[in-house]
Specification:
With about 90 residues, the protein is α+β, with helices and mostly antiparallel strands. The protein is about 45% helix and about 30% strand. Strand 3 and strand 4 form a beta hairpin. Helix 1 packs across helix 2.
């Protein structure tokens, strides 16, 4: 689903203008990003937990050249679905 499709669906269901929905989604994205970067985690009830996790650097082997190289450390965003979301997805399949 594209952002425009999401905006259209919310606009129709909530009975508000597409522009208002677009502004709300943009504000949500800004707040969500700030919170994740500042706190390192964000929980949305009925959806799940977003968490920034750290993957340490490590050595790896190129299987073709047999050369050792280093994979640098990095932070990544992980998501764990809430039990409500898991239950809902299992009902619809």
């Amino acid at each position: 689903m594209s952002q425009e499709e999401l905006i259209n669906m919310i606009s129709e269901r909530a009975g508000i203008s597409k522009q208002t929905v677009r502004e709300i989604l943009n504000a949500f994205a800004e707040v969500w990003t700030e919170e994740i970067l500042l706190q390192g985690e964000l929980t949305l009830d009925n959806i799940g937990d977003f968490l920034i996790e750290h993957r340490p650097g490590r050595k790896a082997l190129n299987s073709e050249t047999r050369e050792l190289f280093t994979i640098p450390p990095k932070d990544y965003l992980s998501f764990t679905a809430s039990q409500d979301l898991i239950n809902w997805s299992n009902k619809t399949t």
